[in-house]
Amino acid sequence: MKPHFWRPPVLSTERVTLRPFVNEDAEALFEYAKNPNVTRFTLWDAHQTVADTNTFIRDYAVLRYMEGMPEPYAITLNPAPQPVGACGCFWAAEPHRTMELGYWIGEPFWGKGYVAEACRAVLGLAFAEFGPERMQARVIDGNAASGRVLEKLGFRYEGTLRRALLRRGRFEDVRMYSLTREEWGRDQKPEIT
Ligand SMILES: CC(C)(COP(=O)(O)OP(=O)(O)OC[C@H]1O[C@@H](n2cnc3c(N)ncnc32)[C@H](O)[C@@H]1OP(=O)(O)O)[C@@H](O)C(=O)NCCC(=O)NCCS
């Protein structure tokens, strides 16, 4: 456990800044988290009221920060400070050095490459500071955009866990993706010409 005031470090890319959530983010995040199009393929349900978003920040986010995890990060688009989505990674199985990546962004911002850009920064931090051997990501079958994000990040599709998730009264097939420490290190090296 980390001290209660510990927060993951702010990460910046050309277009995106990732920072820990603060309580004041609830109203802005709710605008996107209430959209059922966003939650079509997520484990969490669309927020019904801003109280749901408050709970996400006060309970889920703060607990993860106390565990020392870089998750969830607020995705903000430079130079605006308001959150438009969330991403991050956490230990799926620490004894096996396996972390898991998660992400979402508000519908008005889909298809602009923001999530791939944000996740690249998270991966950089995770591989440098947390030392996972394997980064995995699970995608509910049918979420092609999410699979594409992972491909752009260098993840490999490993196979499908059939009917592995009971969600909203339905069994879902789950596509498993992974990126190893070695692949990340190799792909980050500048090309020798
Ligand atoms: C999935 C999601 C995170 C992608 O974020 P994004 O910022 O739009 O992603 P990017 O722009 O970096 O990349 C999306 C890629 O998917 C492609 N894509 C979008 N819709 C697609 C579809 N229906 N079929 C195939 N590819 C699709 C885009 O063309 C793009 O690829 P390209 O850069 O080669 O053109 C975003 O749509 C989202 O938040 N969805 C709702 C929440 C969610 O599903 N989260 C993931 C749970 S595993």
From TrEMBL:
Gene3D superfamilies: 3.40.630.30. It holds the Pfam family Acetyltransf_3. InterPro entries: Acyl_CoA_acyltransferase, GNAT_dom, N-acetyltransferase. Residues 16-181 form the N-acetyltransferase domain. GO terms for molecular function: acyltransferase activity, transferring groups other than amino-acyl groups. Keywords: Transferase. This is N-acetyltransferase. It comes from Gemmata obscuriglobus.
